[in-house]
């Protein structure tokens, strides 16, 4: 058979490196030799001798958004082979976490990660129920973290002179050293007179960066998960 479908742009080539690599803008390839962790349901193809094990609630419950009551269940992938991961054709990116780093990320944006990374659940300081009840995961250690994002993310530097305000439904994650709090941009009266409705944002201060996606969660999409 012939056609554009079978061009080198789409044809999978032999792996050139172990571990996690970007296959294309919508998919991450993981060459497994041991074990790794991924979002349940994110595997779209695999080859080789791999076993997939659903993780218990102790792990699955750590990536959660209290605003929807959802958790992000994980699965362990073990053996030798290759697996491809994707989620709703969202854009894929890889973050290199090095010793001493700490990266806070929203659970909905986690696709897969090295088992060498440590993670814990953390309530975003200053963002309780009023701010969406943000429960994010904090990754530390040494390894790679695969993320998904609706569209091309914005990486915005944060400095003491220039704090950043982000919509709680658009934030993907941020680096260590940033403090968070809630910020109200409008009064109730202003909103009733036709304001933007963006009443509460997450305020980040310090030295680092914040990653924001160029879209917000819609009620319809939220209900599908």
Helix-strand layout with pairing:
Blueprint: E1 19-24, E2 27-39, E3 43-54, H1 57-60, E4 64-65, E5 70-71, E6 74-85, E7 91-97, E8 102-106, E9 110-114, E10 117-123, E11 135-141, E12 143-149, E13 154-158, E14 164-167, E15 171-175, E16 178-184, H2 188-192, E17 200-206, E18 208-212, H3 219-223
Antiparallel strand pairs: 1-2, 2-6, 2-9, 3-6, 4-5, 7-12, 8-11, 8-15, 9-12, 10-11, 13-18, 14-17, 15-18, 16-17
Short synopsis of the structure:
The chain is mainly beta and about 220 residues long.
Describe the structure.
It is a single chain. This protein has 225 residues and is mainly beta. The protein has helices spanning 57-60, 188-192, 219-223; strands at 19-24, 27-39, 43-54, 64-65, 70-71, 74-85, 91-97, 102-106, 110-114, 117-123, 135-141, 143-149, 154-158, 164-167, 171-175, 178-184, 200-206, 208-212. Strand 4 (64-65) and strand 5 form a beta hairpin. It is globular, with a radius of gyration of 19 Å. Residues 57-62, 64-70, 128-133 and 219-225 have low confidence and may be disordered.
Described by the principal axes of the CA atoms, the overall outline is globular
Helix count equals: 3
DSSP strand count: 18
Q: For the CA atoms, what is the radius of gyration?
A: 19 Å
Key descriptive features of the protein:
single chain; 3 helices; mainly beta; 7-stranded antiparallel beta sheet; 225 residues
């Amino acid at each position: 058979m012939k056609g554009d479908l079978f061009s080198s742009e789409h044809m999978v080539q032999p792996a050139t490196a172990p571990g996690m690599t970007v296959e294309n803008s919508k998919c991450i390839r993981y060459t497994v030799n041991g074990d790794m962790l991924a979002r349940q349901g994110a595997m779209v193809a695999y080859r080789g001798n791999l076993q997939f094990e659903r993780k218990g609630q102790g792990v699955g419950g750590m990536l959660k958004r209290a605003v929807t009551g959802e958790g992000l269940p994980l699965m362990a992938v073990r053996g030798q082979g290759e697996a491809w991961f994707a989620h709703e054709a969202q854009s894929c990116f890889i973050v290199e976490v090095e010793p001493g780093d700490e990266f806070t990320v929203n659970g909905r944006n986690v696709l897969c990660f090295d088992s060498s990374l440590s993670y814990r659940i953390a309530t975003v300081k200053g963002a309780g129920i009023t701010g969406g009840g943000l429960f994010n995961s904090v990754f530390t250690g040494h390894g790679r973290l695969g993320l998904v994002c609706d569209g091309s993310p914005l990486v915005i530097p944060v400095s003491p002179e220039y704090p950043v305000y982000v919509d709680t439904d658009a934030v993907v994650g941020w680096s260590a050293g940033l403090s968070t709090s809630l910020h109200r941009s409008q009064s109730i009266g202003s909103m009733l007179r036709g304001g933007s409705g963006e009443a509460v944002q997450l305020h980040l201060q310090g030295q680092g960066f914040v990653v924001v996606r160029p879209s917000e969660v819609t009620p319809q999409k939220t209900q599908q998960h």
